[in-house]
Here is the input.
Amino acid sequence: MPFTPSGPSDAAGHPMLFRPSAGDEARHRFPWMEMSRATGGETICGNEIRLQFEGGVTFSSWLDSIRSAQRFVYFENYLVRDDPVGREFRSALIEKAREGVPVYVVYDWVGCWATPRGFWKPLREAGVHVAAFNPPRVALGDPFGALQRDHRKLVVVDGEVAHLGGLCVGHEWAGTESVAPWRDTGVEIRGPAAHAAALAFEAVWAHVADPIAHAANLEPPVEADGIPVWLIEGEPGRTRVYRTLHLVASKARRSIWITDAYFVAPRSVSEALASAAQQGVDVRILVPAHNNWPIVGSMSRGGYRYLLEAGVRIFEWQGAMMHAKTSVVDGVWSRIGSSNLNSASLLGNWELDVGVLDEGLGRQLEGLFMADLASSVEIVLPGGPVIGGRTVSTALGMSTEPLDPEDPLSVRLERNIRGIGSSPGRLTMASVVRASEVLGSALAGNRMLGREDRTVLGTVSIAVLVVAVLAALAPAVVGWIFAVLAGWIGVTTGIRAYLQARKARVREREAMRKRMELERGES
Here is the structure.
């Protein structure tokens, strides 16, 4: 069913720009200082925000902003297709560059692996500055950096308007006459937070090319009164969304509703959500039933059992693909962006999210979540004890309990989903992902292993024994493999250490020179 926003709408029924507002109670429960520490971003007030959730309409908004640019255009996306959607954006960017407006484009090399190199040539010929994030020539010199991707989706125009969220640029998000578009969510921000988003782009650009400062050289916008916004800049080694989720989960009293495309949550995140559910918080997670990466779908399902037994409700979207990455807590705190709840996204990628403390946006995001549930089925554990008012069991299946007609969030189950997660004698990708955690727990002896964990541990043991036998029978082959890997890592990390040390010496000499000049001037 179509989603009808609870806030002000335009003629097409889409949420209009509004200034956030929230009560004192919400501000007290989500203190600005604590949120700033967790997100790693300053508290920014005085913004106007529009929720975006339809690919075609969202892309039109992005293009309108690009065509209105006067000072600069920053365009950053993990994936840009060479299709009608991608070519329309290319034409708009070329047009602005030919008008003399500085245009900068960053794309991720892995995300755009299927986009031919010729796609970018007209942009460069028109004067657009184009850079690929971590192409092979860079990744080969940095064995760990090869795993770090630019997963952000960002358009900033003149430092005054910013679009961010989960939408990549391609036909999947716009849809076709015969194929429904992927479900995704983003926001349009006007105000000081848009300037902060421009600075975030400039930080990424400095990582791949010579630094730029179009936004940095602008006069910082004056912040007006209003509810705070936090720009959450995910960077490798900085667990900002991870810390933020833990903080807001601890503050939740009524509900935590999460939509995630590639939900393979680290154990501590699952424990935080499970703990909230066990204390009576309505925790719901919406994921795609038909993941465009089937392996990730299997990995996600491997973690269902623990959450379901704790009282967390899990729903699977039945459409083409659910690609949104959002959270809404108690209907007042919202997060929308590019970060998925898995280790690669939370710990290794460059991501960009926005946190907003606002009842209006929170209600809209809750309404969107409820509308999505109408196209979803719930995964349950029937026939067992009741935890948190829900029936759980040791086998996954379809609910046999009648739906409560008074519950507006009840969803009629349309199919059984059995055998989800690990089972004795069966290896899944989820088992591999959880193997290190289970092995550590077993070695430390800090908890009793369940049936699934025992299966994982047994599988790891067999794998280790196979490696041991191979090493005994063909030690030279195993030795050469390890030697090549160790040599590559040793050489590349050694070169990096040398280059970093040389840069540090240059900075020290420059600092010393400036101090000496200052001392001579004072004397």
